[in-house]
Amino acid sequence: MNKNNLHIFLTIVQYGSISSAAKKLFTSQSNLSAKLQNLEEEVGHPLLIRGRGRKTIELTVHGEKLLDIARRMESLDSELDELKKDNGRQTLSIGMIEALCTVTLLPFLKEFMLKHPEICLALHTYHSREICSMAENRMIDLGLAGRSSVSGAVRSENLLFEPMALIVHRDSDYQDGVSLAQLPAEGEIYVRWSAAYENWHNEIWQPGQFQIQVSTSSMVGDYMHSAGNWAVVGKSTALRMTERYPLKMISCQEELPVRAFYIMENRYPRSSRLSAMELFKQELQEWIRGSQILLGGSSHPGARII
Questions:
Q1: Does the pLDDT of residue 141 top 90, yes or no?
Q2: Which residue from 153, 151, 159 is spatially nearest to 96, judged by alpha carbons?
Q3: 124, β-bridge pairs
């Protein structure tokens, strides 16, 4: 099976659309579509549910099965490369959701990398459900996700809480103190952060009435191009977006939810990784305690947790 086509398939799933994957891989949509079709012919089944007007991908049953296989193959390839390049450094494989890897924990990850050159961080971004599965199957050493694992093979605990924030277009008439009920659903760039978030969201706006739904926080800014657009994102993501896009962060009358994140590991981790895992967890918790945005601990008083 062509490994390059599998990597393309994984990237399409990770970024939620062929167009976003093409941008990430610096290639054309037509090229990725052709590669995906080659993979489908090799597997003998369609992998994506296709339909006019679809803006984000949805996997078929065979696509879901191939996703699990491709994840395992990618993990094995990574371990083989690690064995070939063994130079005495410890490798720590960490799966995390994109927002944590590229925004929220980015300063810590850079700091840890510079402080510990003896440890090679292998960072992978996935959806929370996939991270739980990978921790269960020992495909990663540590998982950082927006949900805890229910598997008895995985230890998971709350890592941090992050306040959510409201962002609007810079040309918007919305000002600090706006009521959420004043925000029209048809202007929303919606991310389903979790089932609990969806429940909170649907108490205020009619389900499915948003302008567009995207699968990752990195896609939000690309679609907020008009004065009527708005979105609810993590505060660290909001701060980053206001630097990169013509957006602003404003307060609202109602209290926004607080998003919980979890850290997890297999109950029987690889012994060669234990010291690096413990060091990473210890320094991460210390960094969170010193953060001006994030909140550590196992509980958060007051705000609704999603």
A1: yes
A2: 159
A3: 95
Helix pair angle (3-15, 18-25), 10° resolution:
120
What pLDDT, in 10s, does the model give residues 73-112? 876 776 676 666 665 678 899 999 988 998 999 999 999 9
Residue whose tokens read 């990725």: 32
As a whole number of Å, the CA-based R_g of the chain is 20
State pTM to two decimals.
Answer: 0.71
d(CA 25, CA 10): 12
Q: Specify whether 131 is located in the same domain as 269.
A: yes
What is the residue-averaged pLDDT of the chain?
Answer: 87
CB atoms closer than 10 angstroms to residue 72: 13
Alpha helices in 85-146 (DSSP H): 98-99, 106-115, 128-136
Domain shared by 27 and 10, yes or no: yes
Domain containing residue 98: 88-159+259-289
Going by pLDDT thresholds of 50, 70 and 90, the confidence category of residue 297 is: low
**178 and 230 fall within a common domain:** yes
- Alpha-helical (H) ranges within 104-181 are 106-115, 128-136
